[in-house]
Request: fold
Amino acid sequence: MFRNSHTRMTALSDGVFAIVLTIMILNITPPKVINWSKIEQLITELSVYFISFGVVAQYWIFHQELLSHLKRPPTKFLILNMYYLCLVCLTPFATTLLSDDLFSRFNTIFFAAIILSVDFVQFILFRLAIGIWQDRGITPNLHDLEEYRSTIVMFILSILYVLTAILFPPALLIIIFAGFFIRSALSRYIRRRAEQKETSSKS
Amino acid sequence: MFRNSHTRMTALSDGVFAIVLTIMILNITPPKVINWSKIEQLITELSVYFISFGVVAQYWIFHQELLSHLKRPPTKFLILNMYYLCLVCLTPFATTLLSDDLFSRFNTIFFAAIILSVDFVQFILFRLAIGIWQDRGITPNLHDLEEYRSTIVMFILSILYVLTAILFPPALLIIIFAGFFIRSALSRYIRRRAEQKETSSKS
Amino acid sequence: MFRNSHTRMTALSDGVFAIVLTIMILNITPPKVINWSKIEQLITELSVYFISFGVVAQYWIFHQELLSHLKRPPTKFLILNMYYLCLVCLTPFATTLLSDDLFSRFNTIFFAAIILSVDFVQFILFRLAIGIWQDRGITPNLHDLEEYRSTIVMFILSILYVLTAILFPPALLIIIFAGFFIRSALSRYIRRRAEQKETSSKS
Amino acid sequence: MFRNSHTRMTALSDGVFAIVLTIMILNITPPKVINWSKIEQLITELSVYFISFGVVAQYWIFHQELLSHLKRPPTKFLILNMYYLCLVCLTPFATTLLSDDLFSRFNTIFFAAIILSVDFVQFILFRLAIGIWQDRGITPNLHDLEEYRSTIVMFILSILYVLTAILFPPALLIIIFAGFFIRSALSRYIRRRAEQKETSSKS
Reply:
């Protein structure tokens, strides 16, 4: 009767994501007096906010796909999902740190390290989900494998972010912004190629 | 097996809306000492809060109608919804900015620009939803078209807000407050006229 | 296709309630140094927190009963529910204000006025829900009428709170605390009497 | 028609858990200047955060199992669940207090007392749930009894935490961290033994 609940795992995750997405803006204090230096600072803070929002939004899009068909999740999956959420919760903190000083090596490394950790646990979660399906006799389809490959691409990109943060901190945000498009372009490319394969194999 | 989830898109959106509606009050610091100037300030801040709450509540009412029948949303819809939520998240920030100085041109333009952006993305979302239905062979009914037209009315009204903020900042809140009733009166009028048409066409 | 969603109305309401219940504790700043005056202040703040939590928790218990069977809510119900949530959102603010000074007439009246407003809108919501049912041909049962009567009792009690806040501010919290038990005792009494009636009318 | 809703009880609980898990990080202010003493402080605060996250995550895992099959919860269960949530809401506050001074007797006792209270109410909730099932003619299975026993183990461990906080405050976090593994190892052990029993009784 006491059983793991798929509904509640998704509800808790959505709650955490909703708060993380929203509180990042809370850390920006509205300027009391308006002058150019304040507006410049506001633009920087809003840019960091938009990029962080994009990063977390991307996590959510993967996360909602991940859990969509995982009824009766085993306890170890629930626990790993908690580790994942714990790391996602750190992103607003890392965002504020980055907002404070975009050029500090410590702050950029901290930010990149959080992204690396989330991407790593995300990859493990996808691996585990596919493993659970296979145990239950379900073979992943082409789309599933693409999504799984995407999480590997994200993990590799995040290693690149950490290296950028170590070697040339000021470039981090630009690399993340670029990486965002690279990944989505890459996954779109993989998707199309797979669709072509599927069509050609059918005919 | 990895699939976009309608349930989770609505859950995340409701989470974000719930937080946005609630944190707007957090930015009002309760006065430590009570005197007339403090009470005056409190009344101003509460008025801005009520109007902002009304604006976001209206967004939510449209948003819940928008998603009510969009099972298996395509990824581009999910991403556009994220842009929408990102802009909605900016409203508490814009509200605090406006609360600080109701007569500042910068603050009022910022507030009006956020409303304009949200209204624009909302309009695109409704357009996209109708497009997705038509691709799936569903023709929108009269009520759907009215709601769609309402989002156009809202978008046009928000252009008016930006103009007000540029030309005569102090009038912004009053115009928004009035616009709120104008839109709901207008859409009620359209609804009734459409119902009359439907009745007359049936008979 | 664009239709009001019962699921989303409850999801948004639960989100707002969850945040309101949680942020009330955020306003208590943990003491940096521990001494008797600090501990005394902490006990006061925690007492106010517990009572406010009780008040909002009671609202939630009524609210979840209210919406449990109201599929396809009309737009006017959704809008009234928004007014209700807007007022509920003000409770953490009123709680902080009360925490700051338990004996200030302004602060206690503000707190009592918020409770009065919520209780009033809650009563209107219950009235409206029963009206909607009757329009759809459903007659409320004994339990429904008791709950409806309970909201009237709550509204009358809240008038008493406002009077207390005006006449003798320091007694407000004690009266609310007492009123909490009075109402639950009263409704338990009404419930039992109704059950006895039902049993005797059946036999 | 007005009826207690299982869906809403879980939705509210998940909302509260999501916020509690997320706001614990909000209380850590990102250092403005980076030096060794700041990094040391940051590591301490993050360690306390991770342990608190673990404690609350564990509560959630038990809570989602608890409610998974309790359709139409009686009002007394809803009220007890509210007491539970009220205490869970206090954990971020206790965490901040502990973060401020890991060696203060007052702060550690406060933290341990909150854990003790949550564990106690959790135990009562599990007891009540089993009681409600039995009233409805459902006998708890082996797994249910193990989970119930786990809540007793957690309660006993939390008494140990309070004693540690009184006798030797600096050891509290280590004991909690250890207790976390002890409990999960113990429950895994009980689970396996029960499975062996079940297998042997079947053959």
About this structure: The mean pLDDT of chain C is 88.
